[in-house]
Structure prediction request, 640 residues.
Amino acid sequence: MSLVAVLILLAAHTAPATAQQKAQTVSGTVLDPDGNPLIGATVVVVKGTQGAVTDVKGKFTIKAKPSDSLQISYLGYKTETLNVGSRTNFTVRMEKDSSTDIDEIVVIGYGQVAKKDLTGSVATVKMNDIKDVPVLSVDNALQGRIAGADFMSTTGEPGATTTIRIRGTRSINASNEPLIVVDGVMDAIHDLNDINSDDIAGISVLKDASSTAIYGSRGANGVILITTKRGLGSKGKVNITFKTDMGFSQLPRQLDIMNASEFAQYRNDYAYFGSDANHPDVGKDTPLSGSVYSDPLSLGEGTNWIKEITRTALYSNYALSLSGTSDKSSYYASFSYNDTEGIIQDSGQQRFTGRINLERQLFKWMKVGYTGSYTWRHNDQNKSSIGGTAWYSSAQYLSPLLKPNDTYNPLYYNGQKINTQRALIDLNTYYLERHSNNHAFTLKLEPVKNFTINSTFSYYLYQRHTYRYYPGTLPLKGENEGGEAYRAEWDEHSFSWETTAGYKFEKNGHSFDVLGGFSAYSFASHDFNLSGKGYMDDAILWNNMNAVQDKETYSAGTSYSKKTKTSVYARLNLSELQLEVALLPDRDGTLRRSLELRGQQQVGVLPVGRPQVEHFEREFPEGLQLDRRPVAAPERRSDG
Prediction:
């Protein structure tokens, strides 16, 4: 066979392969789930440089090879990937992405609203983001997660309360703490340590005046709305969840403080320059053998007081929940236990929580419910401190030359007895016990469609018991001085009744809802405390407060507080009002009116809006001249 014939044969076989890899024009249409065209969807060739954007009819055209893949994406929808192959025309129906759905429901005061219709400054927290955070209480898990809200730890010990500031401090004398509402009930918990984070379904933080106005003056510092979990899952089946985690905590680093040898050299230098009144005979010409410490290096490390009173602290959490549903009822029950050691020895917290949520549909128009919670906390308080300004009682200021069991410090003034950090931890007793429980009964009526009546009656009780005893065996105590005892009882309880009636009307994308309500609230607190000195039997502790030797060292105090409130409130929402001006694009705006009537007949009207522009295509007469000068966009708030 001649060379020409071979070349012709090879060209005949390779021509089809070359043709298959040649780019071709591919077109298509991108639609939403309802079949409407998606304008501005992005179409790109995977691992290529070609790209296109859909027009007002959702159509696109792009160059692609049969072996290429097209990737189609649009905000709020799942990304689609298509293999080109031999096809040159596609019709793609996009699927909604629920993770970016702008119709997400946000809990607000006495109701909920779609996120797209939200006008106030409300921050929401997804519990999936914090469920695995290794913290004792939910307020610690929220640190740094909400713009404009500061969650600051007070003492850092297990069970310590957290100072919460929403958009700063408002008052010098009054409280700046926000109002906490759990499942629509105010004062359902004493603080965020009383609720198990595994029981929480969602958290909303109301930050501005328009969103907190319906709570009156009690919402002036912001409002934290907590929604707990309800019965979920398949009907007739019990869902059982058990969760446990363990870990440890320790000081992130050790302070670089002097050991015994270094401290002895420092004391020698201190005396050399004539600063030590206890050794006036030591001066610059004194030999080392005549110094305060003749051989400083032989003293070694001495006592590191910070290491002496701290430890690697262990913690463990156990949580069990049961939930289920049926045709007319649902239930959720949970139990949790936490044991957290403090970094300072003999400190820590034990906590038990229990919760039950029940709902029952008695009739088509009536639903009843019950929510109950109980929390028990035992807090062993810190009996010593690492640093701070109290030089006489902090570990970092103690001399490393002292032994852990020493009772005399020659460096304090002219020398005196002291209670070392070791003695304070081993001999003192100081702990708190807290009990918190809440019971709420709810009634929901819907006598006619879209008209609802909700009524909630709740009872809340909180008790705190304080126990403290300093024995007469403390080194600083004088002979026959005896011990010091302190007992305190604090309890508070409240009754509240909330009833709201609301009506919501929706048609053709427009919505109108009005809500009115009445609330009655009664709160009372009692405080009783006893303290005394001179108890000669340390074994009795605080259990016989009258056994003091001198009644002058014995004191008692009591206090009582009571307050009642009645309130009425109302809210009117109008949304999706379309305003149209000839030949200009439709502008879709939202109008809000908030009406408040609380306390001393104070009325507040807070108008707010949500401007929004909708682009659309319209047929215009031929020869029509349009003014295309740019229009300044409305200013947007950075905090929502």
